[in-house]
């Protein structure tokens, strides 16, 4: 029998993995420069698939071949080759191939496989990239409507959409919220959603809100001739959420919202597969996934790739311009994860929220293009002349940018826009 290396067949070149049924997960970790990083990577690959910290009976060669992870790459950062150049601590990017047969088209099980067992494997690592094979992408639902479906719903093809969220966040009865909805719908808004803090409380049940808000939308349409789509928040534990969502759609809702990190990525998957309307995926509760510098997963995965794979048609993004210290590079990569072409998975509509006002429109369109939804809350409800004027100001800013005009110049012609710029400023 030929001699085998220390790690046996735990390592594979990417050429032998490419095209096979493996998810490629890339991690970053920091270790002492002289530590056995190859052994650590191999241990993690086994621990996340078939292994435990101690040998157990029942593991067969067939099981290893079909279910065990393999190490594909170990890259040092910086790429030091000489011992005389090494620092005391080194950073490493480790890529592990995980057999998709282990978790299938279940994002909860995919996450558990990628990052769920690091305590048992004694590895502190941050998941920074995932590559999905075509075979798995075909099984995942992804957005059922996506950008094209949402544009068809709203009836707008050639510009960014305007989304408003009802403020104050909570405490309103359906009738009180409907009054705010009506005032806002008189302006140039396309979609109005619940705030993420308003779910299905006794003082404002979702179905009652749908009925009251749609009646307000009808009254506003009689005045303006424009249709406004209401998006109720159905976030809850899975069983109640699905029931509430179905009853909301039966009452006339044409889209729904879920806070996917709070309810779970699996809940978003279930909703996408069960409900026949577009879904707005809200990021409430997602920051613990990515804020740790050495654990968890990167923001583009948590806020971009996963909600898209799970079925979000519209996905709320975090930007560096609303006060949260997200790096601009991560924000741009997040939007790329939502928009760039991916085999078998439709693109999702990025929803830009947090500090959005007419003076920010130019920056967002320049950076992200026109296929975005601009979510303005306080800039609409807080406009000096009321919510309708605030919505009009957003539309006027968008129309100016799409026409290649200066927002400031357009503000001299449109009083609503001019007043908004005076109050909120003209730059991010």
From TrEMBL:
Protein name (database record): Ribulose-bisphosphate carboxylase
SUPFAM superfamilies, per the entry: RuBisCo, C-terminal domain (SSF51649), RuBisCO, large subunit, small (N-terminal) domain (SSF54966)
Keyword list, A-Z: Lyase
InterPro entries in UniProt: RuBisCO, RuBisCO_lsu_C, RuBisCO_lsu_C_sf, RuBisCO_lsu_fd_N, RuBisCO_lsu_N_sf
Its EC number(s): 4.1.1.39
All residue ranges annotated as the Ribulose bisphosphate carboxylase large subunit C-terminal domain in the record: 146-319, 345-423
GO biological process: carbon fixation
Naturally occurring in which organism (per UniProt): Nakamurella multipartita (strain ATCC 700099 / DSM 44233 / CIP 104796 / JCM 9543 / NBRC 105858 / Y-104)
Domain of life according to the entry: Bacteria
Molecular function in Gene Ontology: magnesium ion binding; ribulose-bisphosphate carboxylase activity
Family classification: Belongs to the RuBisCO large chain family.
């Amino acid at each position: 029998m030929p001699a085998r290396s220390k790690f046996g067949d735990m390592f594979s070149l990417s050429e032998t993995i490419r095209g096979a049924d493996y998810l490629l997960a890339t991690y970053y970790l920091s270790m002492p420069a002289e530590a056995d990083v190859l052994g650590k990577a191999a241990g993690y690959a086994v621990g996340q698939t078939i292994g435990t910290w101690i040998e157990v009976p029942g593991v067969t060669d067939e099981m290893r071949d079909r279910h065990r992870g393999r190490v594909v790459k170990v890259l040092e950062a910086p790429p030091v080759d000489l011992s005389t150049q090494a620092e005391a601590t080194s950073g490493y990017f480790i890529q592990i191939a995980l057999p998709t047969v282990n978790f299938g088209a279940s994002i909860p099980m995919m996450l558990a496989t990628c990052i769920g067992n690091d305590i048992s494997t004694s590895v502190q690592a941050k998941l920074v990239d995932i590559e999905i094979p075509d075979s798995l992408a075909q099984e995942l639902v992804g957005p059922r409507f996506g950008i094209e479906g949402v544009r068809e719903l709203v009836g707008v093809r050639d510009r960014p959409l305007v989304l408003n969220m009802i403020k104050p966040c909570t405490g309103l009865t359906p009738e009180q919220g409907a009054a705010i909805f009506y005032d806002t719908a008189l302006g140039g808004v396309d979609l109005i959603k619940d705030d993420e803090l308003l779910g299905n409380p006794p003082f404002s049940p979702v179905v009652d809100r749908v009925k009251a808000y749609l009646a307000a939308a009808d009254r506003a349409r009689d005045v303006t001739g424009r249709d406004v789509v209401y998006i109720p928040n159905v976030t809850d534990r899975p069983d109640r959420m699905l029931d509430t969502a179905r009853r909301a759609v039966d009452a006339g809702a044409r889209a729904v919202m879920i806070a996917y990190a709070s309810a779970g990525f699996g809940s978003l998957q279930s909703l996408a597969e069960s409900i026949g309307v577009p879904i707005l995926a809200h990021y409430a509760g997602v920051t613990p996934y990515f804020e740790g510098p050495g654990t968890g997963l990167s923001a583009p995965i948590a806020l971009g790739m996963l909600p898209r794979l799970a079925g979000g048609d519209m996905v709320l993004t975090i930007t560096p311009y609303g006060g949260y210290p997200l790096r601009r590079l991560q924000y741009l990569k997040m939007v790329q994860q939502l928009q760039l072409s991916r085999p078998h998975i439709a693109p999702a509509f990025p929803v830009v929220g947090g500090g959005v006002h007419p003076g920010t429109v130019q920056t967002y369109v320049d950076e992200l293009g026109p296929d975005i939804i601009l979510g303005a809350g306080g800039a609409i409800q807080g406009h000096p002349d009321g919510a309708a004027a605030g919505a009009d100001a957003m539309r006027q800013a968008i129309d100016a940018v799409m026409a290649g005009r200066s927002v400031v110049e357009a503000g001299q012609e449109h009083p609503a826009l001019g007043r908004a710029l005076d109050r909120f400023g003209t730059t991010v």
